[in-house]
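Operator note (shift B, R.M.): manual run for 28S ribosomal protein S22, mitochondrial requested after the automated queue skipped it. Running by hand, logging everything below so the morning shift can see what happened. Input copied straight from the record, untouched. If output looks odd, do not overwrite the archive copy; leave it for review.
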Amino acid sequence: MALCKTIDIGKVFMQNNVQNLLRDISRFKPERVFRRRQVRRLKTPKIMLMSNEQLARAKEEAYLHAKARIQMPPVMSEATAEPALLALDEDIVGYTNFRVMFIDISVGSSDRDRLMSVREKDGRLREPTHEERSRLNHIFYPGEGRSIDTPKMFEEKRLMDLLRRKEYEFVLNRACIQFEPDDPRYVAITSKVYDYIDRVGDYDMLRSTRHFGPMSLYLARNKKTNGLINDMITRNLVDDAVKLVRVGYECLRIG
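Run finished. Output pasted below as returned.
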């Protein structure tokens, strides 16, 4: 389903009341945050003798760590602007048979704000596309866990196989690492995951994760909350259903 173009989902997401509603319906449960996961190597557990005061402090630290792990990833509208034309120099048309890309690697610039430009074969000097910016940033400032090419797992066939295996959180976590939140590829992938979950009713598999809030906002924005509301009522989470309706109202009011 295409996103509703009339609502700026990023503007809605940044509202404090919307973030509070999304956090509430995510249902923070430490035991679920720290549940057993499939990893390559398990860390050796540490056994310590603690006083009551030390135990209370350790529990507080674990609680804060759990809260940090379910902090929602940013939600933004898809970047759709066409790269702006900076200059046209007809004297160099045909000088080269490939594009030349320029990047300012000065310290202190963010990946989003770093100056970049692309010289086309026809003499045009323009801003980079979103994908070109991503690749240039990765070449000079590679992000941890991020690959220069889009991972094969996001190809349609492999993505659908992962969804059928209910690997929703794995896919969403990997998308957060690989893409910026306004990258068209990120928006497309997360939308597919949310739509699939909505179709099969697997909402609870994202509950108490960092992705439940963004999924709820996506469904509210696109007026597809019937299934999630029914799921909440069935689980006796009526207050959550009311808050989800309020999120939908905020989408219409703010967007």
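Quick read of the result: The CA atoms of residues 3 and 236 lie 30 Å apart. The chain is about 50% helix and 5% strand.
Leaving this for review. - R.M.
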